[in-house]
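[Automated response] Your request has been received and processed.

Submitted sequence:
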Amino acid sequence: MPSIRHSLERLRSHLSSLEQVPGAPRLDLEWLRLRCQDTLRYEGESQINSLRQLQKDVHQFIEEFPNYLPDELAQEICNLPIRYPAG
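Generated structure:
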């Protein structure tokens, strides 16, 4: 299973490229990409909480715009394990 960072970087890259596609929901894509960037820069519990919300946001995006994210990438993001840091 890819690391959380690797998966989020793949998602961010894909969203960035989709923003250039004519007719794409650019504002929604940009917002989701920025959420992804925020999640990447957080640490510890803040990152976990952000990841949890990002998974919900990705799921909602898929429902609204079903043909923009590849199934494999969407599944990877939505199934990332959420674990609180030890301590």
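Summary generated for your ticket: The chain has a mean pLDDT of 90. The CA atoms of residues 66 and 87 lie 39 Å apart.
If you did not submit this request, please reply to this message.
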